[in-house]
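Entry 14. Structure prediction run on the chain below.
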Amino acid sequence: MQATKRKPSLAVHLHLYYQGMWDNIKNYLKNMGNYKYRLYVTMAEENPSLTDEIKAFHPETEFFVTSNRGYDVGPFVDMLKRADLCGYDLILKIHTKNCRTGVDTLINNRFIDRLSWFRLLMGGVLGSPELFEKNIKRFAEDKTLGMVGSRYLITSAATTEEEYAEIRRIMARLGYDCPQKITFVAGTMFMVRGSLLRAIRDNFSLADFEQTDGAIHAGTLAHLLERLFGCVIEAQGYKIACSDKKNWRFLCYNKTRALKRFFYHKKVTSGGKLLIKICKVPVFSRKLGD
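Output returned:
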């Protein structure tokens, strides 16, 4: 009689900073079907009615209130330590995201707005029941697979010399050589082998992270660890891959938005100036507050 293969143990860490997004997150979690998992939810403040609602949806849930440090990365590192997530075969890391309109980020030569960014991140790991099963199966069959994320957000985007020097220094402290090309999931939602994050669990704590003020700051520990997650995977001989199919709706939408940006683009620069470009030529500039 053939023995039944054991399903990989799975922990899901959800950083629920924007608590109003729970219903959206819940719909993605439903794509896990009857797969057994332990859900760990971190929040910046208590919400008894919401915790009751989440427990009703998934009884195997633990809640932790964490200080507002390191965006979604600080609480995740805290849970690696507090719940020993590295003891699970697989960890699914997800979080809420500020989906306000009018904010675009250039990733892999595409301008991605916040809502699309969230959907692509979740779509790469929980986009459908079939995709979730495919991700689980890939980890079981491919022993060199270390991390899975969205095909549109796995990136080797340029890293400044200062950031690379700091990442190389941290990697040396963790006992790893730093890859020449840094590959990571922009937005830090992924499925990963738990054992591969032990060095991060053992060398960082929530107190190491800067207090979060709502803005995104390059060079912070959370920003560096976003890249380090990928570095430590590859340094241990594992690869980062995707399972999601091409999203033609997103690609067409992105092409349309890129065309519109070419003809007319208005933005506020990092220096606090309102800048308007037509056909990429600046035609108006004014310091806000003047």
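The longest strand covers residues 281-287.
Filed with the rest of this week's runs.
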